[in-house]
Write a structure and sequence with these properties.
Layout (H helix, E strand, L loop, with lengths): L10 H10 L22 H12 L9 E3 L3 E5 L7 E5 L30 E6 L6 H4 L3 E2 L7 E2 H18 L3 E4 L16 H10 L21 H26 L3 E5 L20 E5 L5 H4 L2 H12 L2 H20 L12 E2 L6 E3 L3 H5 L4 E6 L5 H9 L6 E3 L2 E3 L2 H13 L9
Parallel strand pairs: 4-7, 4-8, 8-12, 9-11
Antiparallel strand pairs: 1-2, 2-3, 5-6, 9-12, 10-11, 13-14
Length: 415
C-alpha cells in the first residue's frame, strides 16, 4: 500500500546514499561472503537472470563485467577493487548454493504443506503507529482503514488454515507495534545530517499535525521515515534470516491508488491485485554497494526459481478467487516474470533482504469505494451483502484465498 495521505520528502536520503554509496542504515557489505557461491551457477544462467529478472535494461553496466568463465563485480563505487565470481563449466557440474530454506518438493509429502516452514509477515504497523506510517485514513468519522491492523488480522485468520494443511507457521510480527527496539528519536541526529545534505541547514525539529505544510522537511518526519521504512524492515530481515529461517515468507499487504488532492481526497473506483518477487534493480540502485551485493546474494542463492514458481501459483489462484484484474506497472521499476499478468519483479527492501523465497501480496485498493465499504462492515463469520454483493468479510476472504492457493497440489510439485 502506498503512502497516499502526505508523501514525505526523502531526497535527503538519496543524496546521502549516493555520497556513501550505501542505502540508509545499511552496513558495508562483506564481499567474501560470496565465496560460498563460487562455481554454483553457469555463465548462461547468470546472464539470463541478470538480463531478464534482476538488472533489465543493462542496469549493471560498468558494475558487473561478465567474461567467459567469470564475472568481475565492483565492490565499492568509485574504487578499483573487484570480486571475481567463477562460473560452473556446465549445469551438471554446478555446486549446490548454500541455503537454509527448502523447496516444497524437498520436504516430506502427505498433507499439502507437510514440513513447510512459512513465516507470516503482516505488512506495516498497526495501532497508533499506522498514522505515523501514513497507512491510515478515515472519512466522516467512519471506521479507520489501517493497513497494519488489517494485515495482522489476515495473518491471525490465515495461520490456523496453513497449520491444518501441515505447515509450521512462524511469525515475523505478531502485534500492532514494531519488532525493532529502536524508535524515531534514535534517528534524529541522522535525520539532521540527511536534511543538511538536502540543503536544509536549519530544519524545524518537529511538526504539529500530519497535514502541516512542509512536514516532510522536519527532523521528526525524516527520523520517523528512517524508523518505519528502514530500521523496522531491516530488523524483520534479521528475524527472518537468523531466527526463523523459514522456507518461504508471506508478506501480507494491501494496495492503494493515488486519490488526487490530499487535502480533499476522494475514494477511487479501481480495484486490482498483483504479486511481487525480487528483481528489476535500476542502474541507480545497483550503484549502491549494499544493493548490488544483496542482489547477487538473492540471484546466486537459488531463490529465483522457487520464489517465482510459488508467486505464480498463488497469484493465479488468488486472482481467480478474488475476481480482481491485474495491476499494471507503467514505469521501469518492475518487470513481468513467468508470463503471468499478475506477477512482477520489483526491488523492495523486504524481498531483497530476506534470504529465502518471498511471496509479496498486494490485493485490493484500500482507498476504493468498494473496499472502504467492506472495511466499514468489519470482520464477520458469515456472508453478508456488502458493497452490493453477498460476500465474506474482507479479511476472511483474503485469508481464505491465500490458504486455498497453498492447498493446491501444484505447490508441492517440482517445477
Amino acid at each position: 500500500m502506498r503512502n497516499f495521505l502526505l508523501p514525505l520528502v526523502t531526497a535527503g536520503l538519496a543524496l546521502a546514499a549516493r555520497a556513501e554509496s550505501l542505502s540508509p542504515l545499511a552496513q558495508r557489505p562483506n564481499w567474501q561472503e560470496l565465496e560460498a557461491f563460487q562455481e554454483t551457477i553457469t555463465r548462461a544462467e547468470f546472464v539470463r537472470l541478470l538480463d531478464r529478472v534482476y538488472a533489465p535494461r543493462d542496469a549493471h553496466r560498468g558494475l558487473i563485467e561478465v567474461r567467459e568463465t567469470s564475472a568481475s563485480i565492483l565492490t565499492h563505487l568509485g574504487g578499483n577493487e573487484y570480486f571475481v565470481l567463477r562460473f560452473a563449466a556446465e549445469e551438471k557440474s554446478a555446486k549446490p548454493a548454500p541455503r537454509f530454506w527448502h523447496r516444497r518438493a524437498e520436504l516430506p509429502q502427505g498433507k499439502p504443506l507437510a514440513g513447510l516452514r512459512i513465516a507470516l509477515d503482516p505488512g506495516h504497523l498497526g495501532g497508533d503507529w499506522a498514522r505515523m506510517e501514513e497507512r491510515w485514513f478515515t472519512f466522516d468519522g467512519g471506521v479507520p482503514v489501517a493497513e497494519g491492523d488489517l494485515t495482522l488480522r489476515v495473518a491471525e485468520l490465515l495461520a490456523p488454515k496453513l497449520t491444518a494443511l501441515g505447515a509450521e507457521v512462524l511469525w515475523v510480527r505478531r502485534s500492532a507495534g514494531p519488532t525493532t527496539a529502536q524508535r524515531p528519536a534514535d534517528f534524529f541526529p541522522l535525520a539532521r545530517t540527511l536534511l543538511a545534505a538536502q540543503g536544509h541547514a536549519h530544519p524545524r525539529e518537529t511538526y504539529r499535525s500530519m497535514e502541516e505544510p512542509g512536514r516532510g522537511d522536519t527532523v521528526q518526519a525524516q527520523a520517523e521515515f528512517l524508523f518505519y521504512r528502514q530500521a523496522e524492515i531491516r530488523n524483520r530481515a534479521t528475524i527472518v534470516n537468523t531466527e526463523l529461517k523459514p522456507d518461504v515468507v508471506l508478506c501480507l499487504h494491501f494496495n492503494a491508488d493515488a486519490w488526487g488532492n490530499p487535502d480533499r481526497p476522494a475514494l477511487v473506483p479501481n480495484n486490482h491485485f498483483h504479486v511481487l518477487v525480487n528483481g528489476a534493480y535500476s542502474a541507480g540502485e545497483l550503484r549502491l554497494d549494499d544493493q548490488r551485493f544483496e542482489m547477487l546474494q538473492h540471484l546466486l542463492g537459488g531463490i529465483t526459481e522457487e520464489e517465482q514458481r510459488l508467486g505464480t501459483i498463488v497469484a493465479q489462484s488468488m486472482a481467480s478467487a478474488l475476481a480482481l484484474p491485474p495491476f499494471i506497472y507503467h514505469q521501469n521499476n518492475a518487470v513481468r516474470v513467468n508470463g503471468s499478468p499478475y506477477v512482477w519483479a520489483r526491488n523492495l527492501l523486504a524481498n531483497r533482504l530476506y534470504r529465502c523465497p518471498v511471496v509479496f501480496l498486494e490485493p485490493y485498493v484500500m482507498n476504493s469505494r468498494e473496499i472502504w465499504e467492506r472495511v466499514q462492515a468489519g470482520d464477520y463469520a458469515d456472508e453478508r451483502i456488502v458493497a452490493g454483493s453477498l460476500r465474506p468479510s474482507l479479511v476472511r476472504e483474503y485469508a481464505d484465498a491465500v490458504a486455498n492457493a497453498f492447498a493446491l497440489p501444484s505447490v508441492g510439485t517440482s517445477p
